[in-house]
Fold this protein.
Amino acid sequence: MWQQVAHTLRALVTLSEQLRENKEEIKALRQELQQLTTAVYQLRVDIDRIQERESSERIHLAKDLEQRHELLKRQIENILLRFERRLPGQKDEHL
C-alpha cells in the first residue's frame, strides 16, 4: 500500500513538473507568436508602402512617356513641315 502511495506521489510530482514546463513552453510560444504577428504586420506595412511608391512611380513614368511622345510627335511634324517647304511648288496649286 505504501508503495502505491509513493508511486502515486512520484507520478503527481512528475505531472506537476511537466505541467509547469508545459506552461513555460506555452508562455514562450505565445511570446514568439506575438513577435511573429508583429513582424508580419510590419512586412504588410512595408509592402503597402512599396506598392504605393511603385504606383506613384508608374504614374510619373506614364506622364513622362506621354510628354516625350508629344514632344517627338511635334518634332516629327516640324521636320515634315520644313521638308515640305523645301519641296518645289507645283504650278497646279494656284488653279
Observations:
- Residues 6-83 form one domain.
- The chain has one helix and no strands.
- Residues 2-86 form the longest helix (85 residues).
- Helices lie at 2-86.
